[in-house]
Amino acid sequence: MNILTLAVNEFGLDLLGAHGLPHWQRVEKIGLYLAEHTDADRDIIRLFAYLHDAKRETDDIDPDHGKRAAELARSLHSRGVLDFGYAKLGQLIYICANHNLRLVKTVDITAQTCWDADRLDLWRVGEVPNPEFLYTKVAKRPDTIEFSRKLFYDSPDLPSNLTQDEI
Questions:
Q1: 23-54 burial, b if ≥16 CB within 10 A, otherwise e?
Q2: Can you say how many angstroms the Cα of residue 1 is from the centroid of all Cα atoms in its chain?
Q3: Distance between CA 149 and CA 129 in Å, rounded?
Q4: Cβ atoms within 10 A of the Cβ of 22, count?
Q5: Is 67 exposed, middle or buried (0-12, 13-18, 19+ CB in 10 A)?
Q6: For 3-62, what is each residue's pLDDT tens digit?
Q7: pTM of the predicted model, to two decimals?
Q8: Rounded CA gap, 162 and 101, in Å?
Q9: Which of the 8 DSSP states describes residue 130?
Q10: Which of 26, 28, 49, 102 is the most exposed place for a label (fewest CB within 10 A)?
Q11: Long-range contact pairs involving 63-70 (C-beta distance under 8 Å, separation at least 24)
């Protein structure tokens, strides 16, 4: 079973809602775009994209959803779904657990890249991403913010390469 299927199975909200599949896919695309400039761990970016909101209980304020996502990552690792060492697991847990906090002090470029990717998709809730709340130089650039805007406004609810049967 792949991470997408596992995340979908864990998600209890509207799959096409503000924190669902289209958001996860945009976070992945934005994260990989940022990683071209930050050298962040692309595997962690992909996992973060699909796990960070998978345990949300509401599309409104849900302060513990990051901690629940971290526990999901820990559980997937203990079941052998995530097949990597404890250092990488610790990094993923940290990134998921803290993604919904503002301006956490970290030098971890992968954490910064993941958090910027999530914040650059605030268009979905009617907010323009604020560079003051972004970490990386590339995320703060006007062309990157424009990239994220276009990605949101030009993307369909489900990408053409993913059918309803695959979810």
A1: bbbbbbbbbbbbbeebebbeebbbbbbbbbbb
A2: 20
A3: 9
A4: 20
A5: middle
A6: 999 999 999 999 999 999 999 999 999 999 999 999 999 999 999 999 999 999 999 999
A7: 0.91
A8: 31
A9: P
A10: 102
A11: 63/100, 65/100, 66/96, 66/97, 66/98, 66/99, 66/100, 66/101, 67/97, 69/96, 69/97, 69/99, 70/94, 70/96, 70/97
Q: Tell me which DSSP letter residue 83 carries.
A: -
CA atoms of 147 and 71, how far apart (whole Å): 32
What would the 3-class secondary structure string for 12-39 be? CCCCCCCCCHHHHHHHHHHHHHHHHHHC
pLDDT score recorded for residue 159:
44
